[in-house]
Specification:
Elements lengths: L1 E5 L4 H8 L4 E5 L7 H7 L6 E4 L2 H7 L10 H22 L3 E5 L4 H13 L3 E8 L6 H13 L4 E7 L3 H15 L14 E6 L6 H8 L4 E4 L13 H9 L5 E6 L4 H13 L3 E5 L5 H12 L3 E5 L2 E5 L17 E4 L4 H14 L4 E4 L12 H7 L3 E3 L8 E4 L6 E6 L5 H10 L6 E6 L4 H13 L4 E6 L2 H5 L9 E6 L9 E3 L4 H14 E9 L9 H7 L3 E5 L3 E7 L7 E3 L7 H9 L3 E6 L11 H11 L3 E5 L2 E6 L2 H9 L2 E3 L14 E3 L9 E3 L5 H11 L6 E3 L12 H6 L2
Parallel strand pairs: 1-2, 1-8, 2-3, 3-4, 4-5, 5-6, 6-7, 9-22, 10-21, 13-14, 17-18, 25-26, 31-32
Antiparallel strand pairs: 10-12, 11-12, 14-16, 15-16, 18-20, 19-20, 22-24, 23-24, 26-28, 27-28, 29-30
Helix pairs in contact: 2-4, 3-4, 4-5, 7-8, 10-11, 10-15, 12-14, 14-15, 17-19, 17-22, 19-20, 19-22
């Protein structure tokens, strides 16, 4: 990222300047703003650093120019003013706050505490405008900054020679060896080190190649705050060249997780339901076909579906007599298959064949036979339980039934629907539940259609102390009253967070964007993309309330750790995100990917390896070494130059040496989607940071969930 220093500006001038910046440092010691103006300024989507140098403030602040004040009282007053302005900026939304290592101790401590309370990155900085110290002295300064609470350390010295610059730049190699220590935050993206002066000019660009999260520029050539400082336009040309920063606006389709559940519920309900905000895709169309096959009257008018349900009950399904053979075709939808199997077993007094197509025919319904046999159902099919299969019920109800939830939520969705039609009340206990958010979507949809199911989440001490962290839940208990009937209702279908994730990641890495039609109060598991992006350092903001637009702005991205067990559809795109996040990211939950449209874990590893990304599997985790976009762009055509660490590799300290680990851009070429719509989307995002075209063998499979996705990306 290119951070532009804004100084000696009034409020209006600052806002005007920010329109040109991808990131900015606001010098509160020279930019005079009221508390209200600070609030408005630092609520900007542009990532901002709040800086207020005490020494500069003493020279510029009118209230400190009283000759009757002692030097000590002036210093105390200046520190108080600086602290107040910095804390106001933090509370307004500053992404970073910079406090020099020489700043008063108490002021620094208080600003640090407020920063950490508000999730603001605390930078400790050191500036030497006279020269450059020895390597040992520089390292000591970094350690000092760290032990004074730094999340990031900035070192800027005056260089009189290339050797001076190399000493400062050698800090990147040294900090890179801090993994596994209490200073490991500096190892990846936690250090900004460069030199001032003409001799240090190139170090302001070179620091990107060594791993700096950002470098500092002037707004234009006349506004440099230090010798050798580049203008913003010069740095943009050097870093990005002809690479355009994307600016996108997109509206996502409706959530098929909600839509498919609502369509089937409406088809079985008594009365006429209206589902608003519908968008077609392969899986949603398959659900409509199933609704029609069940005997429901389905009408589509624009984005509204009107469904007259069949008032289903045991033995009353599509006019079929007891013992009749029924067939239901579920297309390529895994959710629809697992949802409809227990439902049909419960509602139809006879055998039901469930058929499908394409990738669904290869996906084993792991755990389905074992669970259905617990309820007394007969399942006929191959040993792996693949579609097509035949199921015959009814489900035995009543009492307490214990099943495993380790294979996902989709079959549980069908069971909860089916058991509400049963003759007796049933307590369903699900051990080791996964994809828990999708279970809550089921409960929410059923509630809207008048079906009430009690539920309780249980777990050990860690779960109880976690304030409800779903990943720590070990057991879910559902109390399902039998003899319930679905009642028609009207529903507004939510926008799809899994589709939105691709646009949000693209904006966070490659520019900026805005995605419309999203609900930030949604139960969708893929809403967690917001937390993942914020953990990675992306700049996100909410527009127009809970059901409005989400804006994303490029920002310095850092490695993240996440357990994606409950949101497996995010795996492909966040793996691409990790490739552009400085440091080593770990994504847990690979075990949930085996039975998707592809063996998605294998497909992701294959994709990233082909792209030249450093990736491996560690048990249930995907481990990805990432580099910033700027570092990839610069090292794509130029070797990263680095000083050796302590001369141990045979080079003298300060000697320039080529670094073979220079990452470069992702590699273009021919890629397979494995006929998996999520892989197509991830490949399209990755193509924005590739060194050549990415050609996908079956990009049309994206129609399963988002038919217009390729068209959207074609506009970038």
């Amino acid at each position: 990222m290119i951070c532009t220093v804004i100084h000696n500006k009034n409020f209006e001038q600052i806002l005007e300047a920010l329109e040109q910046c991808e990131m900015a440092e606001i010098r509160l010691d020279s930019c005079r703003m009221s508390a209200r103006e600070i609030q408005e300024c630092f609520s900007s989507d542009v990532p901002l650093i709040a800086t207020c140098r005490v020494a500069e403030l003493m020279a510029s602040e009118p209230s400190l120019q009283d000759e009757s004040m002692t030097q000590q009282s002036r210093e105390i007053k200046a520190a108080q003013i600086a602290e107040k302005r910095l804390c106001q900026a933090i509370e307004a939304g500053a992404r970073y706050v910079d406090v020099e290592i020489e700043a008063p101790k108490q002021m620094s401590k208080r600003v640090r505490n407020v920063a950490h309370e508000n999730g603001t990155v605390f930078i400790r900085s050191y500036h030497d405008f006279e020269g450059t110290a020895s390597v040992d002295a520089l390292r000591t300064l970094v350690v000092k900054c760290h032990y004074h609470g730094a999340d990031m350390v900035k070192v800027a010295t005056m260089a009189s020679s290339q050797e001076d610059a190399e000493r400062v730049l050698s800090l990147y190699e040294w900090c890179g060896g801090m993994q596994g220590t209490d200073m490991e935050n500096l190892a990846d993206g936690g250090l900004i080190a460069f030199c001032m002066g003409e001799a240090g000019r190139e170090s302001r660009l070179e620091c990107f190649r060594r791993g700096a999260p950002f470098t500092y520029t002037a707004l234009d050539g006349d506004e440099a705050v230090a010798p050798g400082q580049w203008s913003m336009s010069e740095m943009k040309a050097a870093v990005y060249g002809t690479t355009a920063m994307i600016q996108q606006e997109n509206t996502v389709p409706c959530s098929k997780s909600f839509a498919q559940r609502a369509i089937i519920a409406a088809a079985l309900a008594d009365g006429v339901s209206h589902l608003r905000g519908y968008t077609p895709c392969g899986d949603n169309e398959a659900a409509l076909d199933v609704a029609k096959a069940l005997g429901a009257d389905v009408q589509l008018d624009g984005s509204t579906i009107t469904i007259k349900g069949i008032a289903a009950s045991r033995g009353l399904l599509s006019g079929l007599a007891a013992g009749d053979y029924a067939t239901v075709h579920v297309g390529e939808s895994g959710l629809l298959a697992r949802m409809i199997i227990p439902l049909m077993a419960q509602l139809h007094e006879g055998p039901v064949e469930v058929t499908g197509e394409k990738t669904l025919l290869k996906r084993p319904l792991t755990g389905a036979r074992e669970i259905l046999e617990v309820f007394g159902c007969k399942v006929k099919g191959d040993d792996a339980v693949r579609i097509p299969l035949t199921v015959e019920g009814p489900l035995k109800s009543g009492g307490r039934v214990v099943i495993s939830g380790k294979h996902g939520s989709q079959l549980i969705t069908g069971l909860l629907m089916a058991l509400s039609f049963a003759e007796k009340n049933t307590t369903l206990v699900v051990n080791d539940p996964t994809s828990i958010p999708y279970i809550f979507i089921t409960l929410e949809v059923l509630k809207k259609f008048g079906v009430k199911i009690g539920n309780e989440m249980l777990g050990g001490r860690d779960f109880l102390e976690s304030n409800g962290d779903w990943s720590l839940c070990t057991e879910m208990v559902f109390k399902v009253r039998g003899g319930q009937r679905l009642k028609a209702t009207d529903i507004d279908l939510e926008g799809d967070w899994s589709a939105a994730a691709n646009f949000l990641v693209a904006g966070a890495v490659f520019g900026k964007g805005e995605v419309a039609g999203l609900d930030t109060t949604s139960l969708q598991a893929d809403l967690s993309i917001m937390d993942i992006l914020m953990d990675a350092g992306a700049s996100l903001s909410q527009v127009d309330g809970a059901r409005g637009n989400i804006a994303v702005q490029r920002a310095p991205l850092r490695a993240f750790n996440v357990d994606a067990s409950n949101c497996p559809d995010l795996f492909p795109v966040i793996s691409v995100l990790a490739a552009f996040c400085q440091g080593t990211s770990r994504i847990a939950g690979l075990g949930r990917l085996a039975n998707k449209e592809s063996d998605r874990a294998k497909a992701i590893l294959e994709m990233l390896t082909q792209m030249g990304v450093e990736v491996c599997r560690d048990g249930d985790e995907l481990v990805i070494r990432g580099y910033s976009l700027a570092q990839r762009l610069l090292s794509g055509s130029l070797h990263r130059q680095g000083a050796s660490r302590d001369g141990q590799d045979g080079h003298e300290e300060g000697q320039r040496t080529s670094d073979s680990r220079a990452p470069g851009l992702l590699k273009g070429g021919e890629y397979t989607s494995h006929h998996d719509h999520r892989m197509v989307m991830a490949l399209k995002v990755a193509s924005l940071g590739a060194d050549g075209p990415i050609i996908i063998d079956d990009e049309d499979c994206v129609a399963k969930s988002f038919p217009s996705f390729n068209e959207c990306y074609g506009r970038f």
